[in-house]
Amino acid sequence: MKKYIYKCLVGLMMLFSLSSCDDYLTEVNPNEVTTGSFWKTLNDCEIGLVGTYNQFSDGNIMLLSDETNRSDLSFPGYGRPSPPTPNPAYLQIFNSGYNGVNKKWDALYKGIFRANQVIEGLEGIKSGMDTTEEDEQWKRIMAQARFFRGLFHFYLHNSYNKGSVIIYDFVPKSEEDFYQTLSSAEDVKAFYTADLEYALEHLPATLSGYAADGNTNLKNFKGRIIKGAAAAVLGKSYLYAGDYSTAAVYFKAIIDSGVYALADVSENSTTNGEFNSESILEVSYDANYKPEYDQYSPFGTTNNNANLIAAPQTGGWRGIYPSCWLIMTYRQDSIDINDPRNLVTEEDGSTRYRKFSLRTSHSIAVADDEDLLYYQRRPSVVSYFNNGETAYWRKNTNWDITDHEKNLAPPGRSGINYRVIRLADVYLMYAECLIEGGSNEAGVTEALMYINRVRQRAALQLLGATPAPEFAAADYDKKSYMSTDVMNHLMYVERPLELSAEGHAIRHLDLRRWGLKKQRLDELAAKTFYIGNYKTVDEKGKDISRDILFDVKSDAEATLDDPVKYPPKELFGFQQSAINYIENLHSYWPIPNSETTANPNVN
């Protein structure tokens, strides 16, 4: 009987337990936010939009190291003439399993997922807009979400599989929803173009347009997307497709808007001048927030670009540094001798010209640049500049505000905003449109005008046989230019020097759309550079010698004590890259294996 009663009690307890569990499992937790309970107001959608902006700051989207290494701009790691470990991007041997290929894909689709959540949330409350003000705010939020969805698809289209990628225009609700097929490159382009056109129509022209959303402090809106960003991306899209006339319309609208102006040359690559008058699209970072996260965390507010690029003696890894031809072109960047910004006053009161242009000095550090400090000292005493490493990028490093990257607090976290699109880029793309890639002589004069605006900003010698009215007092190179000459200057001087180590894969995409990638690698593989000595003294007066680069052997020999016994070292690059590069295999990243193994509908 005791056993029977015990069994009955246990059975009743189990019954009540199952009943209460069932009730509990069907009860809504009032403390838990769900998709069903969250997307109810415009404020909810604003909060969701912040998550989309946050995903834009994921460094794997720009993928600075790999996108630069796969172009002709950089050399990976240390130890010229060969990197210590094979770099698949530089050597053009990457495949679908390459880490960068997978990380970029993942980061971009996360951004699309977040943007789609905001779009779906907005659609769910659309009928509840009671006032004109609410309706306009709804459109502004939608325009920002669709801008990012369009932008991320634009990046995917230009990065992967010849443009044939997956379109997501909804929020997946089940596992099967993730098994989407690849869309044609044409359909992807049409999709992101529609998103960007919607953004262009409904985004405010200036940040003041966001004040209508209830916050009149415009500082709170720094980094928000405005019309110029949508126009710039649309212009790039048509330019990449070779449609110069349509691209020119978008670029000219930006130029004529009056919203943007070229900034000082010192303001486009450090914390100084963030969101300046030239900035059109910029990724926001700040080292003052979330100090508990390191520079690698996707939840942080900083990046690790400074660690990646900086010289080893300044706390960096020099994971990439400028290729020889880029260093040499920077060294040869001609200054305007009529511009007082190029005059340096010595301690004895005498004056001389700067050895290197302002653009060169603010873009890279070389040992013999005595006119701009590098981490608060002369470059030659800060870094050894040895082992064939004759230059490091200043861009994206904190050379102007600290004496060592590790001395920043917290150490290793960089708050430098990443510049994606600047007015200078628009000027140079518009100049290319005016000459139609080198086939329109009628556009040469106007194209030179826009190129010269970029050059004059950095006190550079201007291009042209005779002075133009806009800069009549400047020094010109006194050369007559045909459209092909202008195009060559854009391809091999102006765009790489102005835009190196910034933007979204600018150099690689330029070389690919010009049809020059293979030719360029072959040319550089056949090129020889030479290391000479720069003799100076350190801060204690001790003689020191640093490596500097020459493209003429006799010039390098002139700096050596005994060039016969100790001839200048020779530097090469891109030999293996040129051999490995196959247009059909390496002009785009492949669909990553993380997608092909998980998605049965992607072959």
UniProtKB/TrEMBL annotation:
Matches recorded under Gene3D superfamilies: 1.25.40.390
Compartment(s) of residence: Cell outer membrane
Recite the UniProt keywords alphabetically: Cell outer membrane, Membrane, Signal
In terms of Pfam families, this protein maps to: SusD-like_3, SusD_RagB
* Secretion signal span: 1-22
State the coiled-coil residue ranges. Answer: none
Q: Where is the SusD-like N-terminal domain?
A: 100-207
What InterPro entries does the database record attribute to this sequence? SusD-like_N (IPR033985), SusD_RagB_dom (IPR012944), TPR-like_helical_dom_sf (IPR011990)
Q: Does the keyword Disulfide bond apply?
A: no
Domain RagB/SusD, residue spans: 278-602
What family is this?
Belongs to the SusD family.
Q: Output this protein's name.
A: RagB/SusD family nutrient uptake outer membrane protein
Q: Which organism is it from?
A: Paralabilibaculum antarcticum
